[in-house]
Amino acid sequence: MAAYRIDLSYDGSGFHGYARQRDVRTVQGELEAALARVLGPTPTVVAGRTDAGVHARQQVVSFVTDTAVDCDRLARSLTGLLGPDIAVFNCERVADGFSARFSAVRRTYRYHILNRPYPDPLRRAVVWHVKHPLEVTAMNRAAGHLVGEHDFASFCRRAEGRSTVRTVLAAAWTRAPEDLVRLEIAGSAFCHQMVRSIVAFCVEVGRGRLAPEDTPRVVEARDRGAARGAAPPQGLVLWSVDY
Fold first, then answer.
1. What is the per-residue pLDDT for 158?
2. For the chain, which terminal residue's Cβ has fewer other Cβ atoms within 10 angstroms, N or C?
3. Whole-angstrom Cα distance, residue 143 to residue 34?
4. 51 is catalytic
């Protein structure tokens, strides 16, 4: 059996998340159906299971097979079968034991907010429209409190028996051209809805409804009700995965 890695991007708008589910369209379901047509039944492992409506610039998937694989041909075939929502832009043979999930050391996400009084219909699938002015400096101070290892229970949708302790390696808000405000956040791993919950909290800070100095108190509460819910999914992109 040989191990392979494929890198793909996708528009998450038409999917009920990455992970396979019965009777709904998912990225994993579509990808594994396409792989089955080319290689036969092929279970996969993924770097991060994105939620419904979340996009990926670089998602990484690994699998093992005893079928001979021409990587260039496989990438073209998968893209042809999966487009236009999904594109496979890399395929390579990797060392035995490589896991897209467990071998990853850094996952980077970006979240995009359109910050102006009126929405943009052409970007509604890739941004969260926030009409209230946002103070990016305050949002950065709040995000700075989250860097390091913490119990992020206040920002995570709990899964029974799973730890909510995570390490955030970097987090920074910037104001970009065309009225965009962007968070780039990197960590070794994230729990369910963690990034979107951090975004929602920072927006409350940016609107002046919370102070950056409230952040440690919210973290220490380890209570989902202490944060401010979760931002909409369409502004979130899995930007890159490092190994």
1. 80
2. N
3. 40
4. yes
- Residue of 7, 11, 23, 51 marked catalytic: 51
What pLDDT digit, counting tens, does each position of 161-170 carry? 789 999 999 9
Eight-class DSSP state of 48? -
Close Cβ partners of 50 (under 8 Å, ≥ 6 residues apart): 12, 17, 18, 27, 56, 59, 236, 238
Count of CA atoms in the C-beta half-sphere (13 A) of 162: 13
Instruction: Tell me the two tokens of residue 80.
Output: 């042809």
Q: Which two tokens stand for residue 17?
A: 């998340």
Tell me the sheet residues that pair with 73: none
Return the exposure string of 61-72: e unless at least 16 CB atoms fall within 10 Å of the residue's CB, then b.
bbbbbeeebeee
For residue 41, give the nearest of 64, 58, 21 by alpha carbon.
64
Q: Tell me the average pLDDT across 206-232.
A: 95
Query: Rounded to whole angstroms, how far apart are CA atoms 11 and 26?
Result: 11
Q: Judge contact between 136 and 181, C-beta under 8 A.
A: yes
Q: For residue 72, give the DSSP letter.
A: H
Q: Give the integer Cα–Cα distance in Å for 189 and 169.
A: 10
Give the pLDDT confidence of 105-142 residue by residue, as tens digits. 999 999 999 999 999 999 999 999 999 999 999 999 99
For residue 47, what is the DSSP state? S
Residue 86 is predicted with a pLDDT of 98
What's the whole-model pTM score? 0.95
User: Are the beta carbons of 186 and 168 closer than 8 angstroms?
Assistant: yes
Residues forming a β-bridge with 109: 185, 238
DSSP 50: P
